[in-house]
Predict the 3D structure of the following.
Amino acid sequence: KSVIRYRLFERLARRPNHFVTYHQLETEVWQGATRSRETLRSTIRHLKQDLRAAGMAELADAIVGEEQRYGLMLDGA
């Protein structure tokens, strides 16, 4: 499961300050396998917990979601 979290973070970090739709994340992180919204939200939550545990709370807080999409907002966008 942690591999998925790292893939998810890598995908968000590839284009900081831009949102990625749930569908794009399913396609790119889970190789097209359909996941429930709860699974995606849970994976994001665990990724943020991992980052906080590693002393990167600001980075965890920069992962934001809205309207079925997530982004790594490093400039406060």
